[in-house]
Amino acid sequence: MIELRKTTMEDRKRAYEWLYHSDFSDFLNKLPGVKEEEIPSYSEFTADYEDYFFNGSHPEKGRCYVIVCTNNGKEEDIGIISYTSFHLRDKITEFDIWLKGNHYTGHGFGTKAIQILTSIVKGLGYEKVIIRPSKYNKRAIKSYQKAGFIEEELKPEHYYLGEYIPQFSDGDYGPGEDVFLILSL
Ligand SMILES: CC(C)(COP(=O)(O)OP(=O)(O)OC[C@H]1O[C@@H](n2cnc3c(N)ncnc32)[C@H](O)[C@@H]1OP(=O)(O)O)[C@@H](O)C(=O)NCCC(=O)NCCS
């Protein structure tokens, strides 16, 4: 069984470790468009994933959750999922997700976590979710499609607030290197 638990500040360091120092990090860090020398330090990660993601002080800007798996009565924290909205137009939010290691992938856990967060953000009043995986991250794309996301051509002005278009419209991997997926709620 998969559930989401609101993060606390204590979860931020392990969220960083799970993303940048797990056994799938090499795959993510070597994706075209990612410069290995630019892999963030923990303090750089905290500049991106500010306190509010972990302590819930600005839910209108975004929030992280721990993905919790219960199996035979034993609970285990297995990953992180977040929504982020500060850079997007009204009623649109963006998801990010990573499990804590390859062992946990491929069992439907990530897809289930996305479905749960989808219903949370729908309850918060959002109408669209976007997500932008690398076009080479086939497992992530498949998972998001299973959760109902569909590919669309990105028109930045339809999604991003004007002041954030220069910073975000190319995505994390550079022009043409990601897949723009949306889910209408
Ligand atoms: C992306 C992620 C959250 C997805 O969660 P998950 O629990 O692994 O997803 P699921 O098991 O529900 O679905 C994965 C699907 O991809 C498929 N898949 C795996 N490798 C694949 C590949 N190379 N090509 C195509 N499909 C692939 C699986 O078979 C599965 O589909 P199925 O259920 O039809 O068999 C998880 O894999 C993860 O944390 N990966 C590492 C971090 C990451 O890439 N984060 C995303 C950044 S955008």
TrEMBL record:
Domain N-acetyltransferase per the UniProt entry, residue ranges: 2-166
InterPro entries: Acyl_CoA_acyltransferase (IPR016181), GNAT_dom (IPR000182)
PROSITE patterns referenced in this protein's UniProt entry, alphabetically: GNAT (PS51186)
Pfam family of the protein (one): Acetyltransf_3
GO molecular function: acyltransferase activity, transferring groups other than amino-acyl groups
SUPFAM superfamilies, A to Z: Acyl-CoA N-acyltransferases (Nat)
Descriptive protein name: N-acetyltransferase domain-containing protein
Species of provenance: Methanobacterium formicicum
